[in-house]
Specification:
There is one protein chain. By secondary structure, the chain is mainly beta. The chain starts with a strand and ends with a strand.
């Protein structure tokens, strides 16, 4: 679940960022990464349950659109303050104009500077998905007030999750699950094969597979505490354990952008769930013992091929 704060929005297809033009400040377009430029930073201001207004940090103008019509340009407005909802689609977030089926869409996913940004009916195309990169120390809007309304101690996120809610100094929750943060080797309970990033490659979409236990760093995984789960980072590549979407057989792969996972105790190991949907688990496909066997998401059947041993590396 997205929280209030300050973010940069990176388009999944193009790798360019949502940017408010400095020259024509009503223009919102795609542009190469400029991490020091505040016109590529956006404050999410709470506007209801899991919905936000999106304000540019530099210019103070809000993301708006004339209406839910395919091809309507997304603009920055000092007057209109449309409300947007964020839905995690596994590979990134679709940003919906509230109450409609239309999302923020980078025109044809082009990576040219100045590429138009429109709204379009959601199709699942990668040009309609965005990675959210939180700006450190950049909390904005009424986030602090929102946090004060939350319980001071623990907060529950699902039946299978436990303990989580300590708070850091910036008010953001820090996940505490069934294991301590650190570096682990992850072995399947049924086959004893290891969770392995193929070749230790850092390219997006590098397959995560099962392989005979070895000593390589591509079989080590760093569990870092996030807000609602662990970010699981490969020791060889620095890329993160990720997935394409919530469906049975959705394959696991290395990603440059993290998603979060929860870990729960099982009878003879642990189960690993996407933080956004605890009904799915990390699964060794068909319990195969072969090197290169696929790792995927599957609904929880409580099989040993869905359970994992975590050993400190």
């Amino acid at each position: 679940m997205v929280q209030a704060g300050t973010y940069r929005f990176r388009n999944v297809k193009s790798g360019t960022y949502l940017d408010e033009s400095d020259k024509n400040q009503d223009t919102v377009h795609g542009w190469d990464s400029r991490p020091q430029n505040d016109n590529q930073k956006w404050i999410l201001e709470p506007a209801g349950d899991e919905s936000f207004r999106i304000k540019n940090l530099e210019h103070g103008r809000y993301v708006s659109v004339s209406g839910p019509k395919d091809g309507s340009p997304v603009k920055a407005s000092s007057g209109d303050r449309d409300v947007w909802t964020f839905k995690n689609q596994g590979r990134g977030y679709a940003i919906y104009l509230q109450g409609t089926g239309h999302v923020i869409d980078l025109d044809q996913g082009k990576d040219d500077n100045g590429t138009r940004v429109n709204v379009w009916g959601y199709t699942g195309a990668h040009q309609q998905l965005w990675d959210l990169e939180e700006v450190e120390g950049g909390r904005g809007g009424s986030y602090g007030q929102q946090q004060q309304q939350q319980p001071a101690g623990q907060q529950q996120y699902g039946q299978q999750q436990d303990q989580y809610a300590n708070y850091r100094g910036d008010g953001q929750q820090q996940y505490q699950g069934a294991v301590q943060p650190g570096t682990y080797r992850v072995h399947n309970v049924f086959t004893n094969t290891a969770l392995d990033l193929a070749g230790g490659k850092s390219d997006d979409n590098t397959p995560v597979i099962a392989w005979s236990q070895g000593s390589g760093a591509n079989q080590t995984w760093v569990f870092e505490s996030g807000s609602r789960g662990y970010r699981i980072k490969n020791g060889a590549s620095g890329s993160f354990l990720g997935y394409d979407g919530f469906s049975e057989g959705s394959l696991l792969a290395g990603r440059s952008q993290p998603v979060e996972w929860t870990v729960t105790q099982a009878d003879n190991g642990y189960q690993i769930h996407p933080a956004d949907n605890s009904q799915w688990v990390l699964d060794l496909a068909e319990g195969k013992k072969d090197d290169g066997a696929k790792i995927c998401l599957w609904s929880n059947k409580n099989g040993d091929n869905q359970k994992w041993k975590l050993e400190r590396a």
